[in-house]
Amino acid sequence: MIFALLCRVIKEEKYAARRAILPMLQAEEDERFVKEWKKYLEEEARIMKDVPGWKVGESVYNSGKWMPPATGELRPDVW
């Protein structure tokens, strides 16, 4: 009985610690994403500079729906 209670207390403490650190981890990921996105846009501008009418960062798909960007490496083949 005491062992089960102790396990539950430890588990709750672990989850509380995770909840406390989550906003910081999300902020770090957001910062990393913005840096990578800027690199991606600079590379796109460099590659497409001679294409008339090309707008850097504009979607090539015309669905009208916003899709969240994928996490992780944006363009590993470029970097």
UniProtKB/TrEMBL annotation:
Protein name: NADH dehydrogenase [ubiquinone] 1 alpha subcomplex subunit 13
Role description: Complex I functions in the transfer of electrons from NADH to the respiratory chain. Accessory subunit of the mitochondrial membrane respiratory chain NADH dehydrogenase (Complex I), that is believed not to be involved in catalysis.
Record carries keyword Membrane: yes
Keyword S-adenosyl-L-methionine: no
Membrane topology: Single-pass membrane protein
Domain of life: Eukaryota
UniProt cross-references to PANTHER family, sorted A to Z: NADH DEHYDROGENASE [UBIQUINONE] 1 ALPHA SUBCOMPLEX SUBUNIT 13 (PTHR12966:SF0), NADH DEHYDROGENASE UBIQUINONE 1 ALPHA SUBCOMPLEX SUBUNIT 13 (PTHR12966)
Predominant place of localization: mitochondrion
UniProt keyword list: Electron transport, Membrane, Mitochondrion, Mitochondrion inner membrane, Respiratory chain, Transmembrane, Transmembrane helix, Transport
InterPro entries to which the protein is assigned, alphabetical: GRIM-19
Family: Belongs to the complex I NDUFA13 subunit family.
GO CC annotations, alphabetized: mitochondrial inner membrane; respiratory chain complex I
Location of this chain's protein in the cell: Mitochondrion inner membrane
